[in-house]
Amino acid sequence: MAAPAQPLTGSKLLIAAVLIGMGNFLVVLDTTIANVSIPTIAGALGVSSSQGSWVITSYAVAEAITIPLTGWLANRFGAQRVFIACFLSFALVSLFCGLATSLGMLIGGRVLLGLVGGPIMPLAQMLLLRIFPPEKAMLGNVIFAMTTLVGPIAGPILGGVLCDTLGWQWIFLIKVPIAAVAGFLLMQMLRGQPDPKLQVGFDAIGLALLVLWVGALQIMLEEGRNHDWFAA
Fold first, then answer.
1. 156 CB contacts (<8 Å, ≥6 apart)?
2. CA contacts within 13 A on the Cβ side of 132
């Protein structure tokens, strides 16, 4: 049995922290990057703007469903494994979204993107606090806070620029190489680091009710303002 790797120090610790923060940044960025481009996306796919708004709603609903499941996933499979798997999957699904040729295909991709992106945000904070020694835990919190705050601000700006210059597909395609490379590098750097797992129970009924309740609430918050729902 191979001995566990030594704790990260120096430049390796800083690089690993930046890569973890990048995962959090991309997920937070994705919550707003498509907002300003909905009219363009809807026009390109031949649907109305109200239908195009489901590109945003589908991501938000899927993300809201998976975030509460993060604790169980981390205990069952290991926080590090789940984070890296979701990080690499985020790159793959972003590619799928960028290649979408219909609204249904794009919404399906956004649902998958929310499902794999949901656990990244809470796990990013967990891993940052895990890799930093206690006396430097504040630095981990600073990296997490910075990426969480900058993402929503940069999203509409970056989305508008990409949509106007390269096309709406690049709102998703630009994240593919970043997430793929960062996820692969992080996998190599964290190889051998402690990643404990626990045998935890699974409440299927509770999960079904959670998905139903959170999904309905998120749809109401996102789409409830649309007066067409209440038209005769």
1. 32, 33, 35, 36
2. 22
CB atoms within 10 A of CB 32: 18
In angstroms, the Cα distances linking 85 to 23, 33, 99, 133, 184 are: 11, 23, 21, 25, 10
State pLDDT tens for residues 155-184. Answer: 889 988 998 899 899 999 999 999 999 999
Rounded CA-CA distance 105/54 in Å is 12
226: which DSSP letter?
-
Whole-number average pLDDT of the chain: 85
Non-local (6+) Cβ contacts of 23 within 8 A are: 83, 86, 87, 90, 120, 124, 179, 182, 183, 186
In this structure, what token pair is assigned to residue 132? 């930093």
> Residue written as tokens 């799928």?
96
Residues 6+ apart with CB under 8 A from 125: 24, 140, 141, 144
This model's pTM is above 0.90: no
Paired tokens of 86: 């979701």
Place of tokens 């956004």: 110
Site of tokens 């430049």: 11
